[in-house]
Amino acid sequence: NAGVMQNPRHLVRRRGQEARLRCSPMKGHSHVYWYRQLPEEGLKFMVYLQKENIIDESGMPKERFSAEFPKEGPSILRIQQVVRGDSAAYFCASSHRYATNEKLFFGSGTQLSVL
Amino acid sequence: DAKTTQPTSMDCAEGRAANLPCNHSTISGNEYVYWYRQIHSQGPQYIIHGLKNNETNEMASLIITEDRKSSTLILPHATLRDTAVYYCIVLSGGYQKVTFGIGTKLQVIP
Q: Is A87 strand, coil or helix?
C-alpha cells in the first residue's frame, strides 16, 4: 500500500514565480490536510479539504495561496508570486474519514526554497 | 482545542525506557490525546492516541492520569532510531485542525 505521496520533494523558485505542490492521499482516503513548517517551528494547519470541497481554510494566508482537491487527481497547494518568507516545508496528510479519533498519515513533505 | 505543555528536550540511554510527559490541564471531556513524532526532515508519524484509558500498541504506551490533565508517552526500549521530536496534541471537533507545538526533542544516547 502506497502511503501519502508528495511531489516534488524539493522545489526551488525565484521571487515572483508560482509554486505548485502536489499530494496524493493514501488509497481510500478522501480527506486531505496541508500543513506548513517554518525552520525550528512546529507544523501549522493551513487547510482541510475533502474531494472537490474546501472545508476549512482558516490557516491559509488570504492572498497568493490556494488549494484544491479535485474529483480526479492529487490535491494541489498553489502559491502565486512567491516571496522569501514562503520558504518552508509543506506537509500533506490524509485520513479515511471525518472523526476526532482518526489518525493522520503524513507525506514526506515538499521543501520549498525561494531565492 | 486544549493547549499542551511539553519539555523542550530530553535524553534517554539506548535500551532504557523513554518517558515523555505532557500537560493538558484544560482538556475537555471529548478531547483525545494524540502523540506523533517527526524524525529529522520527514513527515510526522502517528504513534498512539487515547481518550481516558491507558493504551498500548506495538510502538508505545500511553498513560493518561485519572483527571486527564496530563499524560505520559512511554517508549519501552528506546533505540537510536527513536531520536525525534515528539508532539503531544489534544483534539476535538471531528477533524485535525491543529498546530503542532514545538514538541519534545528526544535524543537517544548510545
A: coil
Does the pLDDT at position B21 exceed 90?
Answer: yes
Task: Produce one character per residue of B82-110: b if its CB has 16 or more CB atoms within 10 Å, e if not.
Answer: bbbbbbbbbbeeebbbbebbebbbbebee
CA–CA gap between residue B44 and residue B84 (Å, rounded): 10
Angle at B12 between CA B7 and CA B13, to 5 degrees: 170
Read off the pLDDT of each residue in A72-82 and give the average, rounded to a whole number. Answer: 96
Closest chain A residue to B47, measured at CA:
A103
CB B98 within 8 A of CB B32: no
pLDDT at B96: 67
pLDDT at B98: 75
Give which of B93, B77, B89, B91 is closest to B44, Cα–Cα.
B89
Q: Do A106 and B98 touch (CB under 8 A)?
A: no
Check whether A37 has a pLDDT greater than 60. yes
Query: Which of A43, A49, A113 would best serve as a mutation to test chain B binding (most B beta carbons within 10 A)?
Result: A43
